[in-house]
Amino acid sequence: MDSLITAAARALAAGDPLAALKRVALRGDPSALALRGIAMAQLGDLGRAKELLRSAARAFGPNEAMARARCVVAEAEITLVSRDLSGSLQTLGAARTALEAHGDRANAAHTGYLEARLLLLIGRLDAAERTLDALDVDALPQTSRTGYWLVAAGIAMRRIRAGSARAALDRAGHAARVAGIAALAAEVDRASRALGSPVARLIVRGGKRLLGLAEVETLITSDAIVVDACRNIVRTGTTVVRLAGRPVLFALVRALAEAWPEDVSRETLVARAFRARDADESHRARLRVEIGRLRKILRPLAGLNATNRGFLLKPHGAQAAAVLVPPIEGDNAEVLALLADGEAWSSSALALALGVSPRTVQRALEALAEAGKVESFGHGRACRWMAPNVPGFPTCLLLPVPLTQG
């Protein structure tokens, strides 16, 4: 490798893309094209960066598999940043295999970190954690170690482990200081602010207040019966009843928990569960059926007692009943939760992350756009969506990931 290529690579590693471009801006050989692509990515011109990296990958000869793999990894990182996620896992896996086969431990480890980051982004926490655990942190380039610990913090936050998240952020901050790159330090600072901000609202005995992640963790490990509207579950400690896909039953138990220790009238339960203004005999009959189903499902956690005017939630041994709700509620809240990261997402990436069809996401985006909550730019495959006014809360509890404990 010649001296200009070496100097440009060092400048990019130090986070100085302009210095790198001064050395290779007029060159068209494959190595220079790759470095120019990375420099343009650092400067924010992601479209041009992808073009340069693809040109570099094509220009490398058949005996330069490692160089081509590096270009593939750089392009995949750009698609990850630009939230164009289709196919990224496959390309990263193949590139990582090639880099490992050629002994490039540093870039292979970096590719593994990118895989974990992508898996976290689409909600596959177990796979992300396994990928992260399999990596040798010491093999990572210094600039990648900050990202490694940010992914670890993100997994901990989604699993409601505040202590682990704080420890990972502390390590990310140390790695950013060692790297000496301001953009990395700013990313850690944003994550730290998110960890310290309210993530949910608590409703208990008619009162409401905001909770931070550590307070949520304390609540779900207590002996209270918690109706979790963020995950559509009811839990006491490690005993969990899942009601995802059963909106009527969840609406009933939420209404009962919000009123605890008082009972709830049949008219109120009908209105909450069936959205009916006036309860007729058919609604009352359906309510009796649904209460019977709910009583059976909740048997490990609580009983449901009939009263003169309605029903009363009776937790088994729990000292209190509480309702945990997200900071923002309503239709399409999960889409807003993903867009709250401030990045521009493609509709296909949103569908992948949420585990729904692209058409479902498109309808949600159209509804949100009509309400002025999101906006788009670009056309066709280049269309991206953003939330112009990012909610003032981190939304890790809104994202569609099963809540695990321990």
How would you describe the overall organization of this protein?
The chain starts with a helix and ends in a 20-residue tail after the last strand. It folds into three domains: 3-196, Serine Threonine Protein Phosphatase 5, Tetratricopeptide repeat; 201-325, Orthogonal Bundle (Arc Repressor Mutant, subunit A), CATH 1.10.10; 333-398, Winged helix-like DNA-binding domain superfamily/Winged helix DNA-binding domain (Arc Repressor Mutant, subunit A, Orthogonal Bundle). Helix 1 (3-13) runs antiparallel to helix 2 (17-24) and helix 13 (247-259) crosses helix 15 (281-297). The protein is built from 18 helices and eleven strands. With 406 residues, the protein is an alpha+beta fold. The chain has a six-stranded mixed β-sheet. It has a three-stranded antiparallel β-sheet with strand order 6-8-7. A two-stranded antiparallel ribbon has the order 10-11.
